[in-house]
Specification:
The protein is of the alpha+beta class. 38% of the residues lie in helices and 21% in strands. It is built from 27 helices and 26 strands.
């Protein structure tokens, strides 16, 4: 009954990147005839290059170029044969030099992505478990996904949260053999580090713990012989620690390298590590360049290169500190992140910097949360100190202007990153000429304005919202105790420009996840009822559906009002300390989507809404005649033959005894409905329904003996919308009486009798509702989170054991 369309994470990513592409921020092309590393030409503009991850500048070193060219001349452009059979002559020399460099056995792979796909499924056994730092590189997370089809538990934890890691180790220790924790050495967005030494201490405390580091951003610029950040934190490489380095990026060539002191792991990977066997080996040119780079790493010259980069890092850190620019993580890595918070501010600033001859990357979702957008600046030895000075001057010139132009501020950026950034001067808000009014209860809003603007659909009229307040305020159970806010923005003539309401409540994280995910989680919730739940601030509520936001589209300040509302919601979410903000239910081509996304929200697909429209135009004859030919066949087969088996009554007020019976039937339906997984509503909600003037009950019974078959709980909106909101059924009689289809049809008959204009059938069971004439309306929501953990965790759960 509850088959619904679910959002796919990749669809969300596609929408975000498509917008960034339209802004001219990504999918750009370099136009240079020749690269120097210092300058990059984009859209005809020569820009100082502050997006280079070749931190030491070795990719432009003449010795590496010569090594690559000589290898091509001697061995060709490629050696098209699996390395398992035979490797080309240069491989042996490279392996020898890398083993000297790392002082441990190494395995060379085509790149780090294929390397993780080779190593992780090989070393992680079926009796093991995997824990991922949620900021570990995508290539590691992708390889770990392959383990789940083998029944290996894979879990995410929040970034660098060692306390939670230890609690998980304790929980898993009696159930699995090895516990693998996978992390980056240096994280590619903020430039912060893994707590390597603390993790080693944890592995000594718990011998089951094995550590797997992707250190591609820590290579070459750190450590003896440039062996990388992780190796620089180790006296020796323990057998329970695997480290991936890179031969590209700072190393200047191509490929990646696994460092492994465990002989058993080493031989297993070497003998059969997936892509190592079935993928082509590194091209001779890449190996030739890597050999030349390895020689530099094994010489004292590497320390001169490291010192040169360090002087630039120290200089930039000093300049940023003096300029009081909002650096998110201050450390000694060559990766810097200056927060803008809102995507709109990031787009604006990056484009301004390009106009001034500076190229930087923009940190975007999904690499960072949408409201943690910012400039990702990388330093390399190609950057002159004068280039850095120019960058700082332009940041000082344009940063605050970019915030102001996009209705942002430093204090707002600070809230997004949970840091304290002070505005150089008060944020210019005085030109709004709009007044935001907030109310704690629907009773304080203007009855006429509310009902005529926002209250015309679903249960959004004052009567419906008063019912919600009575049912979900000051309730004992925390999942049923909601907070309400009503907001309207008016102009100087007190004319409403915008109206909406919000609720804060406890949601199940898997509410919109596939039923298989919810089914598994509900088993776990038998022991932990609040497992995988979060406090959420939502436009509208869990009980309502439809357009929860009224905008006066004709008003000249409507765009300003929407921006003001979004800032208000952001502050409210911060004050109430929620984990997620959800704005729902919008049409797919919603006019104001870009403004919402620019304010740090990501779009996700919602289940389709089922609406029977223009019902008032279908009153002339029997409803059957308004159905399509195909739907008429369905009616003749699945509904009409059962009509004489049932009786239907509509009750306006029912006894407490009967409402308890109806509630039991609702519980039967709820227990089987995992497609839209919410908390079960308490009996008090139904007790409030039974005497409420806008609620009525369509009761279905068997003709022969009066057995109660099903119940439809329906709300009547004064404006002509009928809402069959909830349903209860006795599943013993479902097929014999076609109870669900009968209740849908009886809802239509009742709405016709009341001369209703439309029926809001809600989400789920789209096929059945469409066969009775309902239209499916695609919907989307906009989501904002403090970090991507919840989103990534749910995506990780899509394929369960």
């Amino acid at each position: 009954m509850a088959q619904i369309k679910h959002n796919h994470f990749l669809d969300t990513v596609d929408k975000v990147i498509t917008e960034a592409k339209a802004e001219g921020i990504v999918h750009l092309r370099a136009e240079d005839k020749r690269f120097t590393g210092r300058v990059l030409t984009v859209k005809g503009k020569a820009c100082y290059h502050f997006g280079n991850t070749g931190y030491l500048g070795l990719e432009q070193d003449s010795r590496l170029k010569t090594g690559a060219m000589q290898a091509i001349l001697r061995y060709g452009t490629q050696f098209p044969l699996s390395k398992t059979y035979i490797s080309h002559p240069l491989y042996e020399e490279l392996e020898e030099k890398l083993e000297l460099l790392f002082e441990n056995p190494v395995i060379i792979t085509k790149n780090s992505t294929l390397g993780h796909l080779a190593v992780i499924p090989t070393v992680v056994r079926d009796e093991d478990a995997v824990i991922l730092d949620h900021q570990v590189h995508w290539s590691v997370q992708n390889a770990a996904q392959l383990l789940k089809v083998r029944g290996i538990p894979v879990q995410l934890i929040r970034h660098n949260n060692l306390d939670f890691l230890e609690s998980l180790i304790q929980k898993l220790s009696s159930k699995v053999s090895k516990i693998w924790y996978m992390a980056d050495g240096v994280y590619s967005m903020f430039g912060d580090y893994a707590p390597v030494k603390e993790l080693l201490e944890l592995s000594r405390k718990y011998p089951q713990l094995h550590l797997y580091f992707d250190d591609v951003h820590g290579m070459s610029w750190r450590g003896r012989h440039g062996m990388g950040y992780v190796m620089s934190q180790l006296e020796t490489l323990p057998e329970n620690v695997l480290v991936f380095g890179t031969l590209s990026k700072t190393f200047g060539a191509s490929g990646s390298v696994l460092v492994c002191s465990n002989k058993k792991f080493y031989h297993q990977i070497k003998n059969f590590g997936g892509p190592l066997t079935f993928s082509a080996q590194l091209e001779p040119s890449a190996v030739g360049a890597a050999i030349a780079s390895a020689k530099i790493h094994l010489s004292d010259e590497i320390y001169c290169l490291q010192d040169a980069l360090k002087s630039r890092i120290d200089y930039f850190n000093q300049q940023l500190a003096e300029a009081h620019l909002p650096l998110i993580a201050r450390n000694s890595s060559p990766v810097f992140y200056i927060g803008t918070g809102l995507p709109a501010s990031g787009y604006f600033l990056v484009k301004r910097l390009m106009e001034e001859g500076i190229y930087v990357n923009l940190g975007l979702f999904p690499a960072v949360p949408a409201k943690n957008t910012g400039l990702r600046i990388t330093l390399s030895n190609h950057n002159a100190f004068d280039d850095i000075d120019h960058l700082v001057v332009q940041l000082l010139t344009h940063y605050d202007f970019a915030l102001m132009a996009t209705h942002n501020s430093r204090s707002r950026v600070g809230k997004a990153f949970r840091m304290d950034f002070k505005d150089p001067k008060p944020f210019a808000n005085s030109n709004y000429e709009l007044q935001l009014q907030e109310f704690e209860t629907i009773a304080d809003t203007d009855y006429y304005h509310w009902n005529s603007n926002i209250g015309r659909t679903n249960m959004l009229d004052q009567e419906g919202l008063r019912f919600l307040e009575e049912s979900f305020k000051q309730v004992k159970e925390r999942e049923h105790n909601w907070r309400f806010k009503y907001v309207q923005i008016v102009d100087d003539a007190n004319c409403p420009v915008l109206m909406t309401f919000l609720t804060e409540s406890l949601w199940k994280n898997d509410m919109l996840a596939p039923a298989s995910v919810s089914r598994e989680l509900e088993k776990q919730r038998e022991a932990e009822p609040y497992l995988q739940t979060s406090r959420v601030l939502s436009l509208g509520s869990l009980f309502t559906e439809g357009n929860h936001l009224y905008l006066n589209e004709e008003h000249p300040q409507v765009e300003l009002a929407l921006t003001q509302l979004l800032e208000y919601i952001e502050n409210l979410a911060h004050d109430w300390k929620v984990s997620m903000t959800v704005l729902r239910d919008f049409d797919l081509n919603y006019k104001w989507s870009k403004i919402i996304q620019d304010q740090g929200y990501i779009p996700i697909d919602m289940p389709e809404s089922c609406v029977l429209q223009d019902l008032h135009d279908k009153m002339g004859e029997d409803y059957f005649h308004y159905l399509s030919k195909r739907s008429q066949k369905h009616f003749k087969k699945d509904i009409e033959p059962y009509l004489n088996l049932v009786t239907c009554r509509v009750l306006k007020r029912v006894s407490s005894k009967n409402i308890k019976r109806y509630y039991d039937l609702y519980l039967q339906v709820k227990a089987k409905n995992y497609g839209l997984n919410t908390f079960t509503y308490p009996p008090e909600v139904f007790e409030a329904m039974r005497t409420h003037p806008n609620w009525e009950f369509i009761v279905l019974k068997a003709v022969d003996d009066g057995r109660l078959l099903g119940i439809m709980f329906c709300y009547i909106n004064y404006s002509g919308t009928y809402i069959p909101s909830l349903i209860g059924m006795d599943y013993r009689y479902l097929n014999g009486f076609q109870t669900y289809r009968q209740l849908l049809y009886q809802s239509i008959l009742r709405a016709r009798k009341l001369y209703m204009k439309r029926i809001d059938f809600g989400m789920s069971a789209n096929f059945e509702k469409r066969k009775l004439g309902a239209s499916l309306i695609p919907k989307q929501a906009f989501v904002q989170t403090d970090d991507n953990f919840l989103l990534e965790q749910l995506e990780m759960m899509r394929t369960t054991r």
